[in-house]
Amino acid sequence: MRYVSTRGKVPAVSFKDAVMMGLADDGGLLVPESVPAFTADELTKLSALDYPSLAYGIISRFATDIEPAKLKDIIEKSYAAFDTEEVIPVVRKGGLYIAEIFHGPTFAFKDIALQFLGNLFEHILEERGEKLNIVGATSGDTGSAAIYGVRGRKNIRIFILHPKGRVSPVQEMQMTSVTDENVFNLALDGTFDDCQDIVKEIFGDLKFKHDFSLGAVNSINWARVLAQIVYYFWCSFRAAENGRKPIFIVPTGNFGNIFAGYYAKLMGLPVEKFILATNENNILSRFINDGDYTAKEVVATYSPSMDIQIASNFERYLYFFYDKDASKVEELMKTLKTEKGIKFPAADIAKVQQEFGTYSAANEETEAVIASFYKSTGYIIDPHTACGVAAGLKLKTESPVICLSTAHPAKFPDVVMKAAGKAPEKPAGIIRLEGLPRKVADIPKDTETVKEFIRRNV
Ligand SMILES: *Cc1c(COP(=O)(O)O)cnc(C)c1O
């Protein structure tokens, strides 16, 4: 399988090159040249497999330049790091299926992709005799999942900037209790935006980027989408009711999770509809409802990992929606850049609405849903999941409804406590970290100082 850019201006590359490249050189996102599809018979066979075997059955269609035994090994290692053998339990609560995609080492769904990506990076770097220095900014979930994805790995170092005192205590503990020598936590005296600006400036210095082999782990890496495709199959198989197609409800920020679902459908997975759940940062809900993809100010909510305006994976969806018309995508992205928004024609949106519904839950509703769901089912959900469950509880449908639960509630104990009047039970993987030594460097809000830190530690 070869990979092409959504903007069509770079030659096709291999899977391994696509993983190492991240963003394509023409500014587009890499996508597989063709969509591998499964027949009904093949789906039946896949439905009997355990999680790592299912993952292999799907991922092997895309990672065609990795030797099968090696790929199996990478996948098995990635999911052995989860705290349940099932990897993703699908439980039935309040008439809904809740897919707990948060059982990885940092208790948010990003582990599913970043465990795989960490192992993949290690393999490719070793084979090529190269080194990689990952630099990133985090508001919480991505940084910890990325750190756990690469801790202790050969030929990789990771530098994660977080705004000092502005990530949740659990998130901070998860990041800073990793003392492996290849992991560097930088607590920046500033906001998340300051962290992001500094990272952008560092990547903008092409000589520095090249001299120090810098790389990113952001959600546009195809390997991240790929790992997420797997659980749409897994969950569908577990919610099969008399052959009825399921509805998936997906708490959404960067459109990475839900895009993986959309792609699973392109591969032949029967899906009735996707419901894209947002918080007050509802640009994607406005797109689905009225074709209005215009950025507004980001507001802070109870579900911080969805506090995003421009969704980086949305471009991949547009590429497939417009039948792989790369020049159309390029034109739309140009409009987005110059006009800070795109208005889509009504006829296109009618087509979008055949596949996507949407729901936007504000803070009060998020809190109310955590409370009422706990009261009626005894089951505690986190604030991101609550945005999706809010949509699920309003649906009138005969189809099985699968809500993706993107984080363990113990990651966001304050909101849960406020809503349900009960602290979520802490998983062993969080309790274990309490009182461990911390490794973190305080750093001023200054790009040169951060660069100097990287220079000294690579
Ligand atoms: C990252 C994240 C999301 C949003 O996922 P996208 O792929 O960006 O749409 C939702 N919930 C949680 C808990 C997350 O960490």
From TrEMBL:
Signal peptide boundaries: none
Cofactor names: pyridoxal 5'-phosphate
UniProt keyword Cell inner membrane, yes or no: no
Upper lineage: Bacteria, Pseudomonadati, Deferribacterota, Deferribacteres, Deferribacterales
Keywords: Lyase, Pyridoxal phosphate
Enzyme Commission number(s) from the entry: 4.2.3.1
Family assignment from sequence similarity: Belongs to the threonine synthase family.
Domain of life of the source: Bacteria
GO MF annotations, alphabetized: threonine synthase activity
Residues bearing PTM N6-(pyridoxal phosphate)lysine: 110
Threonine synthase N-terminal domain span: 2-79
Keyword Transcription among record annotations: no
Pfam family, any one: Thr_synth_N
Protein name per its UniProtKB record: Threonine synthase
